[in-house]
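Task: sequence design from structure.
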């Protein structure tokens, strides 16, 4: 199985930015743990702060991979184009967020990508990604 985790804007700063919301562990460190946990799955990781690059990556693997775990960051609340990219591909996508969006600013409760994903997971810190992998495995089973 081939799964790709895609992180959007500012998530390259995990472990450094707003530690009270996002924690103290870098995503690269957490990704190493995920790869050890799921050694039988080919896990890959892509991050960009640029909306078009995220769309290009969804297009690149969206017909060949088994699943995508997507944390679109702030693009979740602004990008119709990301939602269109998800709708255009066949690979199932799980939307994940580190924080509980409903406990934050009201505009973060709106997702422009959620309707095109098979599900959404939010509020479990970095563990949201593991839960996303588990949800994809259950969906594909």
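Answer:
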């Amino acid at each position: 199985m081939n799964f790709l985790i895609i992180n959007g804007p500012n998530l390259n700063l995990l472990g450094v930015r707003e530690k009270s919301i996002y924690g103290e562990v870098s995503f690269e460190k957490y990704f190493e743990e995920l790869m050890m946990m799921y050694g039988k799955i080919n896990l890959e990781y892509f991050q960009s702060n640029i909306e078009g690059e995220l769309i290009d990556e969804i297009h690149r693997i969206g017909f060949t991979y088994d699943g995508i775990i997507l944390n679109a960051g702030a693009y979740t609340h602004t990008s119709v184009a990301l939602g269109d990219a998800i709708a255009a591909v066949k690979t199932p996508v799980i939307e994940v967020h580190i924080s509980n969006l409903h406990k934050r600013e009201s505009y973060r409760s709106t997702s422009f990508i959620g309707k095109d994903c098979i599900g959404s997971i939010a509020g479990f810190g970095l563990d949201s990604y593991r839960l996303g992998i588990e949800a994809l495995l259950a969906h594909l089973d």
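The chain is about 35% helix and 20% strand.
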